[in-house]
Amino acid sequence: MGDKTIDIKKVFLLAGALAAYWIGSGFATGQEALQFFAVYGIKGIAGGIVFLVIMGIITYILYGAGQKNKFANPYDVFEYYCGKVLGQIYIWYSLTLIYCIFVVMLAGGGATINQYYNLPTYMGTAVIGVLALGTALLGVEKLIDIIGVIGPVKIVFLAIIGIAGLSLLYGTPHLLAEADSAMPNLGFKAASSNWLWSAVLYAFLALIVSIPFQVNCGASANRVKEARMAGILGTIAFAAAIILLVIGEMVYYKLIINQQVPTLAIAKDISPLLGLLFSILIVVSIYSAVASFLLMVVRKFAVDKTKKFNIIATVLTMVGIFCGGIIPFDELVNILYPIAGYSAIVFFAFMLFKELKMKIIAKD
């Protein structure tokens, strides 16, 4: 392969891996798209574009930085941008947040399997935990290969809901205006009182939990241009999923009132078979995100595929499975998420400062 050749398969795998990483249980169920975007009506679609612009810039920078610097440990990116002291604070905060979300997802996975398949919750949590552990033990490259394929599958399934909504809208165009006026008054939870801030907050929440992962993906690319293409493509795919899901939730808004899993309610209405496939998709979404989050936590302490890595990964998984059934995670998330959003905005400011400084130095 020549110096200037772009490996298209690698670009799609790395883009798919990012989409799969972001599409966890909250997004696959439709709750994130509902609370951060759809609840604001048509403005929620504009929010999806705001997310694309912010995250497009961020992934371009982070994937490129990962490829150029090839950090020995992906968490080194925090010191790279913020300096030693603040960098260490970010490292431990990010680590805590990612592990907490890992446990939240395990608990959510157990509840999902219990709800759809009538298996005991602890059994569902254990099954997803063990599958995620097995995937993480294969190492970062294998994980990217696996979830890089799963990512586009998730996007396609979520796009079906949006496409079904668009086709329904084609015959009854007044539905969008009707939904636009109805959505804010139906009792749905909203992430913020303002649609624009909600979109910005969602972008920075996505940033703070994916910084080490994006750096790892960038390092896996063969060259900087390839890495940046993958980052942008993954962000476009995810933003498209947001917008299509928002349209679907607006068009089918009567179906999703008081529904914990909006996507499943819509999918069942479109087709019982699609409903069944969506129940599987949600479990797969949780599994792939859990495996990615676990690997990112353990990579702080050990290189993948080593004995030390395997032991730490196993212990953290066992602790996660145990805690998944006893800690009130709604309170934990309520405390961690707002702080996460603000801390990510500060980190982004440091990123931009460092990148601009390096460009000025390079010109001089």
TrEMBL record:
Write the record's keywords in alphabetical order, separated by commas.
Answer: Membrane, Transmembrane, Transmembrane helix
- Per the UniProt record, which residue ranges are transmembrane? 40-63, 90-113, 119-140, 152-175, 195-217, 229-253, 273-297, 309-329, 335-353
Task: Decide whether keyword Membrane is in the record.
Answer: yes
Asked if Ribosomal protein is a keyword of the record, the answer is: no
Q: What is this protein called?
A: Putative membrane protein YkvI
